[in-house]
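Pipeline run #58 for the internal structure catalog. This entry was flagged by the ingest filter as a single-chain record with no existing model, so it goes straight to prediction. Upstream metadata was stripped on purpose; only the residue string is passed forward. Reviewer on rotation: M.T. Logging verbosity set to normal.
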Amino acid sequence: MMALMAREDTQSEPRTDTTAPRTEAREDRGESPTRAWLTRFLVVGIVLAALNLRPAITSLGALLEEVRDGLGMSGSVAGLLTSVPPLCFALFGVTAPRLARRLGPGAVVCAGMAAIAAGLLIRPYAGGTAGFLAASALALMGIAVSNVLMPVIVKRHFPDRVGSMTGLYSMALALGTSLAAAATVPVTRALGGDWRSGLAVWAALAAAAVLPWAVFVRDRATPGAGGAERPGEPHARVERPGESHARVAGSGESHPRVAGSGESHPRVAGPPVLRITRSRTAWALAVFFGLQATAAYITMGWMAQIFRDAGVPAGTAGLLLAVTMVMGVPLSFVIPRVAARLPHQGPIVVALGVCGLAGYAGLHFAPADGAWAWAVLLGVSNCAFPLALTMVGMRARTGAGVVQLSAFAQSTGYLISIPGPLLVGVLYQHSGGWGLPLALMAGLMIPQIAVGVLAGRDRTVEDEAAAS
């Protein structure tokens, strides 16, 4: 399917003006240094954005006990705190496509990075649980819109490299996740042992991510405009990174616009709105996304506490959480590339699910003795996230379809994931141990495998919606 996408994306329309190829070649040669510079800036921006999409969560997980003591939280309230990320992702993620259409995807991601920086800086000093939650929500709002738009930006600017660019983005995301988990406790100690300073320091990384995206603030091109269409249908020439084109169907005229220039040209009306809810694959992918997110946020929010309750020192527990997260660095680059070459991603879904079941069993029977092995297994299992992102790009044939599928799968999925971390906190507080919470986690892995196999079938949401 990816080879077909590449062929469709690079297809060009018949030209009526025989001099146009030479003219366009001259334009391309003249503009190539600018496009190359913008491409590099875009790649840097994608990597920096991905680095900032999880430290707000894993830095808190590493210091959850200190935050609970400092703010006077019960186990149930702490469970509510660990449920805030998926809640914000569901509420704010659905607004990302509309904001991107109005402001441009670059401006939305830039604002998202600024919101992350502000929220992370404010929340430790907001005073009380309510202020902490409100500032966390601000940071998570920025993460939510960026979460949704990253696959869209990759599809739009790198349509023939969806697998490799998704892998790079996912690898950076995993690196940022593990870095925050491993470094938060040592950094806190180096700053005098105050958990507030240990959490606030991550605002600097988010502030750095604002700079490259500021270049693309004025890029108002419609997300997904460069997506592949069916062969034979009128379509726009695929956009190079940093450039967008409007083409009048059949005219052969192309009007280049470098991202950030602020110039605009008439654009062909977009395709009809896709009725995404009519696609069974869209629903399967949304549920798969929700269940893997449930497992991920339970892990990020509670795994360090599981190890600490088993007698593992706080610093070691943070390192174990970092090991779980760092497994995504190599695997998040490998899995999307492998998945993009397979007609059916079901076998990968099953393999990741089996690793998760083994990890939960180990946490129950020997949490301290086999801690490193369980951390590795759960880290492998958590790589269902880059697999889900890859399937978003593969299960839609057009750029516009990717926009809708990404927003639908992530927003619906995060809604599904909201009760999980909260329920774990309630079960932990009322049962006095981790037996019931771990049984819940293992039980949720079974339907995750089932719907993941369904979502991995070789079909597109456009075809399913049209046939229903």
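catalog note: The longest strand covers residues 243-247.
catalog note: The beta strands are 243-247, 254-258.
status: ready for reviewer M.T.
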